[in-house]
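Thread: Newbie trying to understand structure tokens

Hi all, I'm a second-year student working on a class project, and my supervisor (Dr. K.) asked me to get a predicted structure for one chain before our next meeting. I've only ever worked with sequences, so writing a 3D structure as a token string is new to me. If someone could post the tokens and maybe explain what I'm looking at, I'd be very grateful. Here's the chain:
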Amino acid sequence: MVKQHDPSKPIRVGIADKSPLMRAALKHLFSEDDRLQLVSTSEDSDGFLKFLESVPMDVAVVGWIIPPGDARFILDRLQTRKNSPRVVVYTGFESETVPAQVMAHGGAAFVSKNEEPVHLLNTIVQVAGGSMVFPYLDVSLLNANPLSTLTKRELEILASLAAGRTNKEIAAEKAVSTNTVKYHIRNLFEKLGVSNRGQAIALYLKS
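---
Reply by user tm_fold:
Sure, no problem. This is what the structure looks like when written as tokens:
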């Protein structure tokens, strides 16, 4: 059951977007809505995840294209964290498959930057209340996603591979041995039907 936000308190919101102009625009937009309290802004995925270690938030508004890759890097990591914020992916990137990818990787909402700003504000409130907000989705896109066979940890490691992390770096990040990382990589290769990390990364970026 999704924990709902207490409506008597402002919704703590974090921003992660590669564009300084967009970060500034969102900061201004949120400052004018008494329902929201901006608690962090980040320009990349690593900075956002670092903020989360010390700054609690209820909802994160994240761009789809964000270094070191895309929002899946953030979404896959949040699935293994306790008390993670619910994620609204807010993007101008036009693709019919992106909303399905956001949902498949644990996102709570997808909002196009072509929508009026009030739609984003209302979506944040709905998501904080426990709702999911998406445009119409072809559910076959979800069922056909080969990544659906992976465990949360395997998805997390695959996202790290896609971000260019080495086995040693992933092991240090997860506080496990490199042999454990290799074990997970072998498993995900087998599940995805690939033989090397290049093929796995290519499949991840397509799915």
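A couple of things are worth pointing out once you decode it. The mean pLDDT is 88. The first helix runs from residue 20 to 31. Feel free to ask follow-ups in this thread.
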